[in-house]
Amino acid sequence: MTAVPLPQVEGISHRDVHANGLRFHVAEGGPPDTAGLPVVLLHGWPQHWFMWRDVLPALAADRRVIAPDLRGLGWSDAPRSGYRKQQLADDVLALLREMGVERFDLIGHDWGAFAGFLVCLTAPERVGHYLGCSIPHLWPPAERPSVRRLLTLWYQVALGSPLLGAALMRQGEFTRRVLRGARAHGRYTDEELAAFVDVLREPDHARATQQYYRTFLLHELRPLVSGAMKERTLTTPTRLLWGRRDPILQGAHATGEHERYAPHTTIEWVDDTGHFLPEERPELVVQRARELFGTP
């Protein structure tokens, strides 16, 4: 368990839940019994549950909210292996079942949004609606990747490299630069930066970051771009929010062939917004979630 102090958000409580042989930290709030489904929020890298600090209290006004730390990140266990994104999705489904949550609405960001897609594809009967932030859809067109898009992956190569990736996390400055550089609107306070950076400096969490990216580059990237996901259809009502200044989404296609495989998906571009959209535009995320999920 990490020794880094846990940040606090008013009205949000914390507990550990064991599932899939691991201990997961879970932040939660809101009324336990409402007419609407619980809302599950999945963070990305290099963050944890605290990235939802401005979204959780608003949604908790009338929904139960559940924000776990994914394996290897935040205050959850960081095993040496198990970082394929399907394993993250399986963790989420097992964790929620352990918590007695069978059906839920879902919000994801970055790797949490990738895992969110897989949660919907794996157990569509359990997900009411899905709001994905700052993530390309899983059905890219069959085309040669542009040099510009390939260059945006340089940081993933660095993070996925043996020794180098973990060393960058231990040092800390790389994480600070990523958080500052990919945020187009607003700035992190020193305390907010420390809440994200310090956890990743611990050896097991630093190694977990390296595994997130190494697993993606070696095992998941090629099937994704080669169209392997076209064997699966997303039936969950889904909305994607894309920041126009998000470097991850440069060249992403909002219309096209993916509509065959995700027929109930809409995509909204958000002006003057970078990669960390839920922190830059928390009011918009809450508004779009309420519109998509419906009123309890």
Summarize the structure.
This protein has 296 residues and is of the alpha/beta class. It has helices at 56-59, 85-98, 111-122, 147-151, 154-160, 164-171, 173-181, 190-200, 203-225, 277-280, 282-293, and strands at 13-19, 22-29, 39-42, 65-68, 104-109, 127-133, 238-243, 265-270. β1 and β2 (22-29) form a beta hairpin.
Reconstruct the topology from this structure.
Elements: E1 13-19, E2 22-29, E3 39-42, H1 56-59, E4 65-68, H2 85-98, E5 104-109, H3 111-122, E6 127-133, H4 147-151, H5 154-160, H6 164-171, H7 173-181, H8 190-200, H9 203-225, E7 238-243, E8 265-270, H10 277-280, H11 282-293
Parallel strand pairs: 3-4, 3-5, 5-6, 6-7, 7-8
Antiparallel strand pairs: 1-2, 2-4
Helix pairs in contact: 2-3, 5-6, 5-9, 6-9, 7-8
Task: Note down, in words, how this protein is organized.
- The chain has 296 residues and is of the alpha/beta class.
- It contains eleven helices and eight strands.
- It has helices at residues 56-59, 85-98, 111-122, 147-151, 154-160, 164-171, 173-181, 190-200, 203-225, 277-280, 282-293; strands at residues 13-19, 22-29, 39-42, 65-68, 104-109, 127-133, 238-243, 265-270.
- Strands 1-2-4-3-5-6-7-8 form an eight-stranded mixed sheet, sandwiched between helices.
- The longest helix has 23 residues, at 203-225.
State the main characteristics:
alpha/beta, Rossmann fold, 296 residues
CATH superfamily: Alpha/Beta hydrolase fold, catalytic domain
Overall CATH class? Alpha Beta
Q: Tell me, rounded to a whole number, the average pLDDT.
A: 92
Helices and strands, in order, run as EEEHEHEHEHHHHHHEEHH
| CATH architecture label name | 3-Layer(aba) Sandwich
- Rg for CA atoms: 18 Å
Q: From the 3D structure, determine the CATH topology.
A: Rossmann fold
Report, as a whole number of angstroms, the end-to-end distance: 37 Å
Regions with little confidence, pLDDT below 50 for 5+ residues:
none
Question: Structural class per helix/strand content?
Answer: alpha/beta
Spatially, the strands of the biggest sheet line up as: 1-2-4-3-5-6-7-8
Q: What's the number of domains?
A: 1
**Overall shape:** globular
Helical amount: 25-40%
Number of DSSP strand runs: 8
Strand content: 15-25%
Q: Helical element count?
A: 11
**Biggest sheet statistics:** 8 strands, mixed
